[in-house]
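Backbone-to-sequence.
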């Protein structure tokens, strides 16, 4: 019998569907082969081993528009090259997080260059689509890099000495606060209690997630391991749980290391009208946004192709303010 703390348990494929303020999450896993001179795959996919998505030479998502919501991209392994119509660009990888508020419109591309030609190029990333308030949908687009060197970790040991490692991507866990979110994000205000954690539990480790408010939404995605005990219920991996928010939740890993994406936050409470990559509050607003996109493309695309990538040797970096400011994580 289900525990009353667990509202639902849903098997997951590629896409996880959430509730306000979250929209959905795509979990990309690809076993890319060695790269070639163009940073594409050196060998073709014979049995759907990997996806090119919409890339023709390099896997990824060439130039495309967004408006009215936020994308939170968490890279567990692999490399992402980012370019946008604001004139910004960057490369991030292997534990980095990019938080983009699309506001009143932006075009960008996300390409997955296969930078290793001597070994395979595995890719695993999560992209969370996170809603914005009606006022935030009108603001200029913006983004911020959360480099892996900056993201706070909380290490806890249970009574048996087994370790839990919790990365605080948004909000806070107990007394540890995350890096500030972009200013026009629903997650920027502490009162919205948007907590996003990436949790790794040692085999049989136990961890308690503190209660949040009764009005919050709360989800747990168990994406790696064998089984996870949530309260008194055993959950198989690749399942999404919706949980009671205003109670402590007891987790216990099975006999393998377990990994979890944890999401919770106060709902925005506004109507949602969604059509493709646009998320607004009414059909009228969607129609106006599509007209505006056809007229303006949310700014001139300043890059030489719709699917640019950097050279293989390019280290991780990001640019801001139309490319005026350049940031390297090792210099922070």
């Amino acid at each position: 019998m289900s525990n009353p703390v667990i509202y639902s348990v849903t098997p997951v494929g590629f896409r996880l569907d959430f509730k306000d303020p979250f929209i959905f999450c795509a979990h990309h896993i690809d076993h890319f082969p060695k790269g070639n001179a163009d940073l594409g795959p050196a060998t073709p996919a014979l049995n759907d081993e990997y996806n090119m998505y919409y890339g023709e030479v390099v896997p990824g998502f060439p130039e495309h528009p967004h408006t009215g919501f936020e994308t939170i991209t968490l890279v567990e392994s692999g490399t992402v090259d980012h370019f946008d119509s604001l004139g910004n660009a960057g490369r991030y990888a292997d534990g980095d997080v990019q938080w983009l508020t699309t506001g009143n419109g932006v075009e960008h591309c996300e390409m997955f260059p296969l930078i290793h030609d001597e070994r395979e190029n595995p890719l695993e990333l999560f992209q969370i689509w996170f809603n914005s308030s009606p006022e935030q949908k009108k603001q200029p687009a913006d983004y911020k890099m959360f480099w892996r060197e900056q993201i706070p970790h909380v290490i806890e040991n249970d009574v048996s000495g087994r370790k839990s490692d919790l990365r605080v991507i948004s909000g806070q866990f107990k007394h540890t606060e995350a890096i500030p979110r972009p200013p026009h994000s629903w997650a920027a205000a502490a009162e919205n209690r948007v907590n996003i954690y990436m949790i790794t539990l040692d085999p049989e480790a136990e961890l308690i997630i503190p209660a949040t408010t009764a009005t919050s939404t709360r989800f747990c995605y168990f994406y790696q391991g064998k089984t996870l005990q949530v309260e008194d219920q055993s959950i198989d991996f690749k399942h999404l749980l919706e949980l009671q928010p205003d109670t402590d939740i007891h987790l216990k890993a099975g006999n393998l290391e377990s990994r979890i994406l944890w999401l919770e936050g106060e709902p925005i409470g506004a109507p949602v009208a969604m059509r493709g990559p646009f998320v607004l509050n009414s059909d009228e607003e969607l129609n106006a946004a599509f007209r505006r996109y056809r007229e303006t493309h949310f700014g001139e695309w300043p890059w030489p192709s719709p699917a640019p990538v950097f050279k293989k040797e390019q280290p991780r970096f990001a640019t801001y303010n139309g490319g005026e400011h350049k940031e390297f994580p090792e210099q922070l």
